[in-house]
């Protein structure tokens, strides 16, 4: 189960773990893949392990 961190501004983040996909992270966070891609300015669905991505 992905760990989602919420910072004071109300922004949720997630540190990418081995085996994570945009779909699995989006599903766990209750957001769309498209919204994660837009928030993080991602051009593809590839993720780097260790990268902190914004969810909300």
In short:
This protein is of the alpha+beta class and 56 residues long.
Description of the molecule:
The chain has two helices and three strands. With 56 residues, it is α+β, with helices and mostly antiparallel strands. The protein has helices at residues 22-29, 33-39, and strands at residues 5-6, 12-15, 52-54. The protein has one domain (5-54): Membrane-bound Lytic Murein Transglycosylase D, Chain A, CATH 3.10.350. The longest helix is centred in the middle third of the chain and has 8 residues, at 22-29. It has a three-stranded antiparallel β-sheet, with no helix packed on it.
| Overall 3D shape | globular
- Determine the N-to-C terminus distance: 18 Å
What percent strand?
15-25%
CATH topology: Membrane-bound Lytic Murein Transglycosylase D, Chain A
Gross CATH architecture: Roll
Cα-atom radius of gyration: 10 Å
List keywords for this structure.
single chain, 56 residues, alpha+beta, Membrane-bound Lytic Murein Transglycosylase D, Chain A, three-stranded antiparallel sheet, 2 helices, 16% strand
């Amino acid at each position: 189960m992905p760990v989602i961190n919420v910072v004071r501004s109300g922004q949720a983040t997630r540190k990418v773990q081995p085996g994570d996909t945009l779909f699995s992270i989006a599903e766990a966070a209750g957001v769309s893949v498209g919204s994660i891609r837009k928030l993080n300015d991602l051009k593809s669905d590839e993720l780097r392990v260790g990268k902190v991505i914004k969810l909300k």
